[in-house]
Design goal:
This protein is α/β, with parallel strands linked by helices and 357 residues long. The protein has four helices and 38 strands.
Length: 357
């Protein structure tokens, strides 16, 4: 594709050669001749003087002094949003793989009472249980297990080796990546007098609303009673644990290795970074951001705040604490010095008092 064709596709303005051929997309620090890259995050501006890319998507509204020090020319394609433009080009240069063929693979095991829409695609070795419903244009890839009484909406994409257990409900336009389990038992055990544990029956369900995406190897536990619910538009990264009776609000994003304990309610438009841990039976208000590796031990009641640390505090307070902690070694040295000086002063005072007697 020529730069001219590419610029037309992203509605960009060209500065440089418009007939130059572009063959690949690449990150700015890794790009080679023939590649187009992009600059969105200002911290990568340092690569503008050295990148080997032939062309770059760059903002119309920003002038970068680093371009003046380049020894080799680079074609600028100025756009409103370089990052979104780059995402459009990914689909052009690297189209999605072929979708799963419509229909039911001969090796699939489909219960007689299941209802599979004629426009759905069911892969090899898929098992669909009694009374399960799979609606139109949904693709269920190989080796996936759909339990009894499961409902799956339209335009759903379920990758290989997913398990969706009995009575769970999946909305429309949902994506579930490989290895995820929806509807595993909640972690419920009652201690007995002899020191052993009695398993608490987990008879609720999981409801995943429309436009949710769930990464690989996530565990979303069914409710003890009632439902665990992930609301419209939320996105879960890989390796996220959602315990029984949790509710995750709309358009909330949760990064990898986060664990949410039972019966916690998370609001809308929240951001949970990687390895966040949240205790059970609390509430997180709308538009809360929780920084990576934070531990949330109590409810967050104010909307729009950012928290960090274990136990987590508002990020401004935690930053001040961290700055103070970094000063501790020097403060301890000063403290020891002061202790010695005070001891010496006490000794001198005692000597003076003895001499004056």
């Amino acid at each position: 594709m020529t730069v001219k064709e590419l610029a037309r596709f992203v509605n960009g303005e060209i500065t440089g050669g418009d007939e130059i051929e572009i063959s690949h997309l690449a990150k700015i620090e890794e790009a080679q001749p023939g590649d187009i890259t992009f600059l969105s995050n200002p911290k990568y501006a340092k690569y503008l003087s050295s990148t080997k890319a032939t062309a770059i998507l760059i903002s119309k509204d920003i002038e970068y002094k680093e371009l003046a020090s380049r020894q080799n020319p680079i074609v600028l394609v100025k756009v409103e949003n370089p990052y979104l433009s780059f995402l459009k080009l990914i689909d052009v240069f690297y189209p999605e793989p072929q979708p799963l063929a419509k229909g039911i693979h001969p090796s699939a095991v489909i219960a007689a009472t299941a209802k599979i829409d004629g426009d759905a695609a069911i892969g090899a070795n898929v098992v669909v249980g009694d009374r399960a419903i799979v609606k139109s244009n949904t693709a269920i890839w190989h080796n996936t297990v759909i339990g009894d009484d499961v409902e799956i909406g339209s335009d759903v994409l379920i990758y290989p080796n997913v398990s969706i257990r009995e009575r769970c409900k999946i909305g429309n336009h949902v994506i579930i990546h490989s290895g995820t389990v929806v509807g595993s038992d909640g972690f419920g055990f009652a201690p007995k007098p002899d020191g052993t544990y009695e398993k608490i029956p987990q008879r609720g369900s999981v409801v995943i609303e429309d436009d949710v995406e769930i990464g690989s190897n996530c565990s979303i536990d069914r409710a003890t009673l009632g439902e665990t619910r992930i609301k419209h538009g939320s996105k879960l990264d890989n390796l996220v644990q959602v315990a029984h009776n949790v509710t995750i609000g709309e358009n909330t994003v949760i990064a990898a290795q986060t664990g949410i304990s039972g019966s916690t309610k998370i609001g809308n438009n929240c951001i949970l970074a990687g390895q966040v841990g949240i205790v059970g039976h609390i509430q997180i208000s709308n538009r809360t951001t929780i920084a990576a590796q934070s531990g949330i031990s109590k409810s967050i009641t104010q909307e729009g705040k950012t928290y960090f640390g274990t136990p987590a505090l508002e990020i401004g307070d935690m930053r001040r604490i961290i700055v103070s902690q970094r000063q501790l070694p020097e403060l301890l040295k000063e403290f020891e010095t002061l202790k010695k000086e005070i001891a010496e002063l006490k000794s001198q005072r005692l000597l003076i008092e003895k001499e004056n007697k």
